[in-house]
Structure formats: structure tokens, C-alpha cells
Amino acid sequence: VCGDQNQGAVFLREFTLIRRESLHDDFLSDLLNNHKTEDPSSRTARSEEDRDSLWDAWGSWSECSRTCGGGASYSLRRCLSSKTCEGRNIRYRTCSNVDCPPEAGDFRAQQCSAHNDVKYQGQFYEWLPVSNDPDNPCSLKCQARGAALVVELAPKVLDGTRCYTESLDMCISGLCQVRREALLCHFC
């Protein structure tokens, strides 16, 4: 067995695996609604293992969620049967694992500042990130500059946002995913 048996995904150098039963309906809906229709010829060839199962080949990888600082990319596959297929229909891999230039700033701070030009309770604020929330590290909580006002501006941060400032763990679809680069496992 490869990776952790806890709920969620384990980040691996090449792929992250998510238990099918841990996927939320809104997560799959978001992926399917944002996934581009692709030419069937762009799908990877079915492996020997896939030919013996009820799965189609894995689709191409999505664009990375970030251009630097570490992000996530996903690939989907379809069940070819009217019955339930064993295994996962989505896989992840890390991408854009190069440092961002210092002037790029903090990714969570960028997401907060994107709300600076949107009125909150009738007025504009300059929003600063609230990091390291132990209860929900993947929600976008921001504090108004110079005020005690802390607001959840979005239920989830963008994919690739670090869960905690001093960690490589990252948020994927609103869930903190453990990142373990020492492991390598394609299809556990």
C-alpha cells in the first residue's frame, strides 16, 4: 500500500490520489464544469491495467493552478460501465514548483486583495490575509486593515494555496492535502 490511509489526498512527486468516497459532489461538479472538452485522440493510451478494467484512459493534465510557488494539476478518467468502477476517477500532481519572485507577494494575500474593490456591508476595505486557521485552513479569511473585522470572503482559497505559512501542505478544492514529496506511486 502506498501513501497514508487517512482521509484526503497524499501529495506525491508525480501524483496525488484521492479516495473516491471522500470526493464531494460540489468538488466533482466544479471539476466537470471547468474541465474543457477534449478531443478523444488527446487521451493517453489505455494501459494494460486499464484495458482489464472498466475505465477509459486518463485524460490530459489540466493547466496548473499557479504559475509559481507550487500548484496543482488534475487528470480525469471516465467509467465505461453502467456499474460502479473500482478505483479513482481523478488524480493530482504538483506543478509550477519554482519559487515566485519576491514582488509577486503572498498567494493568500493576493486573493484577499482581490476583494478590495468590492463593497462589504456598504463600504470598501483593504483586506489582509488571516493565515494558519486551525479550524479551516482552506477558507479565505481576511481582516480589514486597521480594524478588528475578520470575514470569510470565500469558502475556499484557490488550489495551490498553502494550508499553513510554514508548511508545504496545500489546499485543493477547499481541503488541506498533505504533501509528501519523498514518495512516488503512480497507481496505488
Automatic annotation (TrEMBL):
Disulfide bonds: C64-C95, C68-C100, C79-C85
Ribosomal protein in keyword set: no
Main location: secreted
Keyword list, A-Z: Disulfide bond, Secreted
Intracellular or extracellular location(s): Secreted
Entry GO terms, CC: extracellular matrix; extracellular region
Secreted listed as a keyword: yes
Xref: Gene3D superfamilies: Thrombospondin type-1 (TSP1) repeat (2.20.100.10)
Pfam families for this protein: TSP_1 (PF00090)
One annotated GO biological process: extracellular matrix organization
Classification via InterPro entries: ADAMTS/ADAMTS-like, ADAMTS_ADAMTS-like, TSP1_rpt, TSP1_rpt_sf
Name of this chain's protein: ADAMTS-like protein 1
Species of provenance: Anser cygnoides (Swan goose)
